[in-house]
Amino acid sequence: MPSNTTFRVFFYTYVLESLTDGNCYIGYTEKDAKRREKYLKTTQGRRFLGLRLLEYKRQRAFGTES
Prior knowledge:
The protein has one domain (13-62). The protein is 41% helix and 15% strand. It starts with 12 loop residues before the first strand and ends with a helix. It is α+β, with helices and mostly antiparallel strands. The chain has a two-stranded antiparallel ribbon. It is built from two helices and two strands. This is GIY-YIG domain-containing protein.
Protein backbone atom coordinates (compact mmCIF):
# COMPACT_ATOMS: atom_id res chain seq x y z
CA MET A 1 0.00 0.00 0.00
CA PRO A 2 1.52 3.38 -1.00
CA SER A 3 2.37 5.76 1.76
CA ASN A 4 1.00 9.30 1.84
CA THR A 5 4.01 10.55 3.73
CA THR A 6 6.75 12.44 2.00
CA PHE A 7 10.30 12.95 3.05
CA ARG A 8 12.97 15.40 2.16
CA VAL A 9 16.60 14.68 1.64
CA PHE A 10 18.93 17.48 2.62
CA PHE A 11 22.39 17.99 1.24
CA TYR A 12 24.83 20.37 2.83
CA THR A 13 27.77 22.32 1.58
CA TYR A 14 30.00 23.42 4.41
CA VAL A 15 32.87 25.82 5.03
CA LEU A 16 35.37 25.19 7.79
CA GLU A 17 37.79 27.87 8.92
CA SER A 18 41.06 26.59 10.35
CA LEU A 19 41.89 27.94 13.80
CA THR A 20 45.60 27.45 13.20
CA ASP A 21 46.17 29.09 9.82
CA GLY A 22 42.82 30.77 8.99
CA ASN A 23 42.38 28.85 5.71
CA CYS A 24 38.89 27.88 4.58
CA TYR A 25 38.05 24.33 3.60
CA ILE A 26 34.93 23.68 1.52
CA GLY A 27 33.19 20.33 1.27
CA TYR A 28 29.79 18.71 0.78
CA THR A 29 27.71 15.91 2.21
CA GLU A 30 26.37 14.31 -0.97
CA LYS A 31 27.25 14.27 -4.66
CA ASP A 32 24.22 16.44 -5.52
CA ALA A 33 25.88 19.28 -3.63
CA LYS A 34 28.96 19.04 -5.87
CA ARG A 35 27.76 21.89 -8.12
CA ARG A 36 27.56 24.30 -5.18
CA GLU A 37 30.93 23.19 -3.87
CA LYS A 38 32.48 23.86 -7.29
CA TYR A 39 30.95 27.36 -7.33
CA LEU A 40 32.19 28.17 -3.82
CA LYS A 41 35.71 27.21 -4.86
CA THR A 42 35.71 29.75 -7.71
CA THR A 43 36.96 33.31 -7.25
CA GLN A 44 33.40 34.62 -7.25
CA GLY A 45 32.27 31.96 -4.78
CA ARG A 46 35.16 32.66 -2.39
CA ARG A 47 34.40 36.37 -2.57
CA PHE A 48 30.75 35.64 -1.73
CA LEU A 49 31.76 33.41 1.19
CA GLY A 50 34.25 35.94 2.52
CA LEU A 51 31.61 38.68 2.61
CA ARG A 52 29.04 36.38 4.23
CA LEU A 53 31.52 35.22 6.88
CA LEU A 54 32.55 38.81 7.68
CA GLU A 55 28.91 39.77 8.16
CA TYR A 56 28.33 36.72 10.36
CA LYS A 57 31.34 37.55 12.53
CA ARG A 58 30.22 41.20 12.86
CA GLN A 59 26.76 40.14 13.96
CA ARG A 60 28.19 37.75 16.55
CA ALA A 61 30.62 40.39 17.82
CA PHE A 62 27.88 42.97 18.32
CA GLY A 63 25.23 40.49 19.46
CA THR A 64 22.75 41.42 16.76
CA GLU A 65 20.85 39.08 14.53
CA SER A 66 18.69 40.12 11.60
